[in-house]
Amino acid sequence: xxxxxxxxxxxxxxxxxxxxxxxxxxxxxxxxxxxxxxxxxxxxxxxxxxxxxxxxxxxxxxxxxxxxxxxxxxxxxxxxxxxxxxxxxxxxxxxxxxxxxxxxxxxxxxxxxxxxxxxxxxxxxxxxxxxxxxxxxxxxxxxxxxxxxxxxxxxxxxxxxxxxxxxxxxxxxxxxxxxx
Length: 180
Fold this sequence. Notes:
Number of strands: 9
Radius of gyration: 28 Å
Largest sheet: 9 strands, mixed
Distance between the termini: 101 Å
């Protein structure tokens, strides 16, 4: 007479629980080598964030299609103070305009308010030193990306900015200027 191992529902349950415990321990070990993303600061958007006193600058980019052409500032300004804040922008020694952010409010640049830099001295894909000036903090410089007016930023192209092209041709330039 041969004896076969006796398997009961209780033994199968214990074996399944043990296998599950070992499996979760092994799979949980993968997270040891991958840091939690919430433990590291990062820019979750295209633009740059900065804080100058009571003014928070959020997601700021400059939209321009060519070097030395106009560019529109796009982003969000948040005033956390009890007073209105006048904010001026400039790049490459030229003015970019001024806005007032009401107390305890925000202002969407590019949507609510169009601020155009007359000359962006870098090509799309590069970074620009943008001066952000307030009475309380003085002149502050933040490096912002310059992006072409395509996809999400297509509606933010300055009125006089050229279209995005691989290489400008005389016929394309003439037809673009004739349409204005």
